[in-house]
Amino acid sequence: MKRIANICRENLAKLKVGQQLLISGKIYTARDQAHKRLSQAILYGGKLPLDLKDKIIYYCGPTRTPAGKSIGSCGPTTSSRMDEFTPVLLNHGVLALIGKGNRSEAVVEAIKKYKAVYFLTFAGCGALLTKYVKKMKPIAYKNLGPEKICELEVEDFPVIVAIDSKGRNIYGKS
Length: 174
Description:
A five-stranded mixed beta barrel has the order 2-3-4-5-7. The longest helix is centred in the first third of the chain and has 12 residues, at 32-43. By secondary structure, it is α/β, with parallel strands linked by helices. The model has no long low-confidence stretch (mean pLDDT 93). The two termini are 26 Å apart. It has a single domain (2-163), classed as Fe-S hydro-lyase, tartrate dehydratase beta-type, catalytic domain (fumarase, Alpha-Beta Barrel), CATH 3.20.130.10. The protein contains five helices and seven strands, in the order βαβαβαβαβαββ.
């Protein structure tokens, strides 16, 4: 597996579908309700709680953090539930997405258009994935409970390139 830290668009352009990576740096959790709020803020001129430019969004809602740990179980949720919001967020600068499952044709086209990447991580392994999260800090929409947006500092977080910046898709055609 290739290690990659501080992902940027230049690095994303070199990635190929199926490639396995260990990423380090900051990623941001956001699920259904956070996506809806972010999209509405963008579409209706509201204030965003964070700058989305060059951010990596992880479709995850961590469970309660046990004492002495940095995070609770933090496995990916089904990405297609965010499909209606994804093109808007990519247009607003989101760099990459992490989740599980296939994406719609509209999302694949948006990934190509904005030169983004969609990564898969291991589903059903939320407890295992906690060992790659060094720090977690809630940063927005705290009233959403586990769906709040959190900043995660990760080290060697395992991902697979599912859709590369050229729109090549590990699942074949969407």
